[in-house]
Amino acid sequence: MFRRLYIALGAIAGVLVIGTTGYVVIEGWQLLDALYMTVITVGTVGYMEVQELTTSGRVFTMLLIFGGFGSMVFFLGTVIDFVVEGHLKGYVEGRRMDRRIEALTGHHIVAGLGRVGSAVAGMLAEERASFVVIDSDPECAGDAREQGWLVVEGDATSEEVLHEAGVERARSLVTAVDTDADNLFVTFTARSVNPELFIVARSSQESSEDKIRKAGANRVLTPNVIGGRRMATMILHPVVSDFLDLVTHGDNVEFQLQEVELKGGCTIAGRTIREASVRDRTGAYILAIQSPDGTVNTNPSSSTALAVGDRLVVLGTQGQLESLMREL
Questions:
Q1: Is 193's pLDDT higher than 90?
Q2: CATH 3.40.50.2300 is the classification of domain 104-227
């Protein structure tokens, strides 16, 4: 539709140029007089001629009227189609969405809205996280817009498209496009643009995991393998499996797992778990601690010291977790 609009504008501009040039050449008029005559002729306003026309000038004027009228009809029809078909509304909404994306910092990006990508985006929406989705399928992009998500319609393997999604300002990226090769390319491109980006990539085959990781992914997941392991856990350790489902995916669950970072000014930083009395004061359990260097203590004792930059994996009810956040 934009192409038609540009063609219509070009047609009108062409008629004005031809008309002005024709009057200058045929009648010998000044440029302004020639342009004025062309405009009133094409506009069919019925004003008097600037100067007396010669026979050649009259013939040229008749041809100009036909050409100008045709170009004006084409232009007006294109504008009406542009408005009636919703292209204008879509253009305005697209510009508004572009501005919202440009204002984001520290957001998440989901590349690919297949089964995996849609599930990721859905959970981000539930958590009220700031995120942008990328997909080249107009239908998938349209569905995402209907849900109120920020969308960039295009190929995620393109650096330009990643820039449109704000990859240089993003906190993380999940790439779940169709093929392992595409996921590898998205990972490599995003990593080259933003070295600090946390990237989680999907792979279809275990053999691709190492390649995608070498391309720059922090985590690589193979849904088929993970699904198989979960199914094995369900039959071998059903209670453990049910508990993990409960605290990680259940709705209206009493207990939840949460990740908490200790920042500067935190009241419990510099103390041991015993001295901080997190369990006694909030009711939440500290299950694991990840140090700033990436080391993970999966079974911290009461004498374990807490420091700024540590990330705590805590378990508790919604109220207990909120109480812990207030303590921090």
A1: yes
A2: no
Could you give the 3-state DSSP secondary structure of residue 31?
Answer: helix
**What span, in angstroms and rounded, lies between the C-alpha atoms of 88 and 95?**
11
């369990």: which residue's tokens? 279
Domains 2-84 and 237-327 share a fold: no
190-195: Cβ within 8 A, 24+ apart: 190/109, 190/162, 190/216, 191/215, 191/216, 191/217, 192/216, 193/159, 193/162, 193/163, 193/167, 193/168, 194/167, 194/168, 194/169, 194/170
High-pLDDT (> 90) share of the chain, %: 31
Fold of 2-84: Helix Hairpins (1.10.287)
CA distances from 148 to 97, 123, 131, 163, 172 (A): 10, 14, 11, 21, 20
**pLDDT tens digit sequence for 232-284:** 888 988 888 887 777 666 555 567 778 888 888 788 888 898 888 888 888 88
Question: 237-327 belongs to which homologous superfamily?
Answer: Regulator of K+ conductance, C-terminal domain (3.30.70.1450)
| Sequence-distant (≥ 6) Cβ neighbours of residue 29 within 8 angstroms | 23, 37, 50, 51
